[in-house]
Amino acid sequence: MNIEQVKSVYFVGAGGIGMSNLERYFLTKKMRVAGYDRTKSELTNQLSKEGAELHFKDDVSLIPEYCQNTKETLVVYTPAIPDSHSELTYFREHGFSVMKRAQVLGQITLASKGLCISGTHGKTTTSSMLAHILKQSSIECNAFLGGILKNYNSNLILSESSPYTVIEADEYDRSFHWLHPYMAVITAIDADHLDIYGTKEEVVKSFEHFTSLIQPNGVLMVKSGLELNIQAEKSVKVYHYSMEKEGDFHAENIRIGGGEIFFDFVTPEKTIKDIQLGVPVKINIENGVAAMALAYLCGASDDEIRKAMASFKGAKRRFDLQIKNDNVVYIDDYAHHPAELKACIESVRALYPTKKITGVFQPHLFSRTRDFAEEFAHSLSLLDEVILLEIYPAREEPIPGVTSKIILDKIESPEKILCQEDELLGLIQNRELDVLITIGAGNIDKFIAPIRSILEKR
Question: What domains are defined for the chain?
Fold first, then answer.
């Protein structure tokens, strides 16, 4: 189907963060947008306000009439939706054009210069930083992001003049293989999504194939130390980056103190001094180096880079500072892999080295919990106190013997507790807290507002 001829778009799994930027894109094109999701959320409420017609029951009779024309309706689905879903089955059996989200994104961005940020962690923050730098510069950009960028309160940025599109390139279900980057970044390659890949080796192979998709005369930016067989053609320029000292692009003269982080940004040609992080977290030095490297190669000036990095407010649920006062600090983060968890906790520890740090963690997926129970426990042991929720199943059925307790038993923190969702707020209410982090990719975000309310009253 030619997307330009589409008049209505139906989304199966409409509440996903990645799906929502496509919904917003089609709404800006004056198309009619409808869809299904399992549960209501703050995001689905916002999409409804913006014009999407959504429902929350898998029921073919609820599909709007304007989405019943096979020649004018495009159906978009997320891989998290099971094949047995009745609405998805209906569309397939009745001859509709049914495409994965990644396929649609690949078609939309095919005519632009795609700046594709990939990696098993760090890609949302890095792509958000890059989008903000370019948007605030004379270059501008379009952007399809995997998080709500707080500077714009959206995960979609559009420009009428810029040839560049920033894309968060998701490795889940090999989705990023539908993209054709002009420039690409690989931030990390950890064993993850083993329900899809099976082994770490297959994850690496998937990223290696991604490098082969970069357009001739394009750019590949790889974090220093990653081991992969780059398959990009010879005309693609390959750079490496790191937090400090290693790589073509890196940071030096890092200064951390008083809740602020400054550093100098080193490029192959020059050094841009006194970069200030708008979100002063140590891991964001590395994310910032990757984002600034691509912005620099696209032609952003020193001053544009410096000003944008200082004004960057971050993406929601990515080291998202909710409260910071003399009584308590509360941070929320989307981390759901042991490496992300470790980076998050170490970043908090660097900011608050003398304070007691309490973490509430909700494991995401039975398979991930089974595969990485020991690694999760190791990362969580960096906390002074651990409150562990039960596993958020997402797209999976339970696995016998796999519960949060297999993580809890291995945690070495002096204080640890397994907590049911309905017990969490009471536990927070009656606890002495210096620094609190809520962490996870499930529905733990529904507790952010009530926890913030409890802590603000202290």
Answer: 3-100 (3.40.50.720), 110-311 (3.40.1190.10), 320-456 (3.90.190.20)
